[in-house]
Amino acid sequence: MERRGYSTHFSKKTRDSSLTEQIPVSISAFVSKLDSSKAAVFGQHIVASDRVYEPRAIQIKSPFDPAGRHIGWSVTFFDITDRAKFEESLQFSLAAAESAALAKDNFLAVVSHELRTPMTSLKGGLDLALSGKLGVMPDSINKPLVIAQRNANRLSRLINDVLDVQKIELNQVKLKNENIDIAKILQDALDENSQMARSRQVKLIHECSKDIYPLVTADAFRLRQVVDNVISNAIKFSPAGGGEINTSILFANNFLRLSVRDYGSGIASGNEKVVFGLFSQIDGSNTRSGEGTGLGMYISRRLMEQMGGRLHYEDAESQGTIFHIDLPC
Question: Regarding the domain with residue range 178-328, which homologous superfamily does it belong to in the CATH classification?
Answer without folding.
Answer: Histidine kinase-like ATPase, C-terminal domain (3.30.565.10)
